[in-house]
Amino acid sequence: MIDLRKQDHLGVTSSSKDGDIHNKDAFLFLGNCPAHRYEAIITDPPYEIGIAGKDWDCKKLRIDVLAYQFHRVLKPGGNVFVFCSDFQFGDWYRELSRYFTRLRKYAWCKPDSRGTNKGMFQESFELGLHVCSENAYFDMEDRYKNYVVAGKTSGNERMMPDPDEEWSTKKGEKTLHPTQKKLSVIETLVTALSKKGDTILDPFAGTGTLGVAAKNLGRKFEMVEYGFRNHIAAWDRILGEE
């Protein structure tokens, strides 16, 4: 019997009343996507740093292509938020500034981040970039001046492989997805950058945190995830919220 969890890619789509998850290549999906489809894009693409030796995080990311496609599929007045590594930040800023007039840095502070670096300071933040046009929507019912978003990077929220699966004990491989974001962080972004009923795209969905946040907050979602195991995990999370 074939264990579908170990299949790299099957090209399926899982659909619900709240949104869809596509097991597809993000670049191909974006290339075939109609223009002006989404009110917001909130995503966490690969960082290109080879974390835990993962192949998907070692390949060169075509940030120029993604910036163009994000602008093309976004509705006028929409928002884009991208998590990125520090050495990617300049590329994201340069490419997105070709299409958007407002760009703001964002730092997710992680005071409870785990691990030690002997002889070094502990790195405890991740960068993000919020871009939009002059007339973009922003939640004015809450105030975000000097706003600090902090939270653990691991713990009960991190998804584990199924009990009968073999998994590594290497750094970054003790959970199903090594860079899963905290739900409250994504919910903050969803609230700030979209209205109820809006549709949000995440073309690098991982284990589906954006979909859970969107559903919790009355938004629609469309997510793309190439890894079939992550696709299953994301869909299980969405069904678990029913």
UniProtKB/TrEMBL annotation:
What keywords does the record list, in alphabetical order?
A: Methyltransferase, S-adenosyl-L-methionine, Transferase
The reactions it catalyses are: a 2'-deoxyadenosine in DNA + S-adenosyl-L-methionine = an N(6)-methyl-2'-deoxyadenosine in DNA + S-adenosyl-L-homocysteine + H(+)
Q: Which GO terms describe its molecular function?
A: DNA binding; N-methyltransferase activity; site-specific DNA-methyltransferase (adenine-specific) activity
Where in the numbering of this chain does the DNA methylase N-4/N-6 domain appear? 40-225
Looking up PROSITE patterns in the UniProt record yields: N6_MTASE
Pfam families, per database record: N6_N4_Mtase (PF01555)
Q: Which residues form a coiled coil?
A: none
GO annotation, biological process: methylation
Q: Which residues form the signal peptide?
A: none
Q: What Enzyme Commission number(s) appear in the record? A: 2.1.1.72
Q: Which family does it belong to?
A: Belongs to the N(4)/N(6)-methyltransferase family.
Instruction: Please give the name of this protein.
Output: site-specific DNA-methyltransferase (adenine-specific)
| Originating gene | yhdJ
